[in-house]
């Protein structure tokens, strides 16, 4: 259950994961290993945690830091995220902060989910600092070089 006086933060992002599928046939005589086919996929990930008044993560809280995700796509992630938020009592939070990169699926689907779950009026949305600076550098290089 969320503490009524605490602020919650959710960070949502994708990642990169290499899925290995073993090749069929015999092992190579030199290496004595099967080869594999590697395919990069993007898992969808999130972290839920409590922050103090200064915005710092609270590690010793009644609410544990929660990390979860899926390889099944954003719809599965939304179901998992919703289950965690309902279990933690997101509607009782004093404030909610959503931190994410610029991925369109995040900004289209997660704010309506938070509204549907009865998040407090003080729900803030923030772009992830590292993704913003990366994109600003690309823009600056293109504009000024």
From TrEMBL:
Residues 17-30 have a biased composition (Basic residues). Residues 1-30 are annotated as: Disordered. It comes from the Bacteria. Residues 1-16 have a biased composition (Basic and acidic residues). This is ISLre2 family transposase. It comes from Nostoc sphaeroides CCNUC1.
């Amino acid at each position: 259950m969320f503490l009524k006086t605490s602020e919650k933060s959710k960070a949502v992002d994708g990642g990169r994961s290499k899925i290995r599928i073993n090749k069929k046939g015999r092992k190579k005589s030199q290496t004595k290993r099967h080869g594999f086919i590697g395919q990069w996929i993007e898992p969808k990930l999130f972290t839920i945690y409590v922050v103090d008044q200064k915005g710092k993560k609270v590690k010793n809280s009644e609410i544990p830091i929660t990390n979860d995700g899926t390889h099944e796509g954003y719809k599965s992630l939304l179901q998992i995220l919703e289950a965690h938020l309902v279990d933690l009592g997101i509607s009782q939070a004093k404030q909610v902060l959503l931190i994410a990169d610029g991925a369109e699926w995040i900004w289209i689907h997660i704010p309506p989910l938070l509204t549907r779950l009865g998040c407090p009026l003080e729900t803030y949305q923030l772009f992830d600092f590292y993704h913003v600076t990366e994109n600003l550098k690309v823009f600056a290089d293109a504009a000024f070089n």
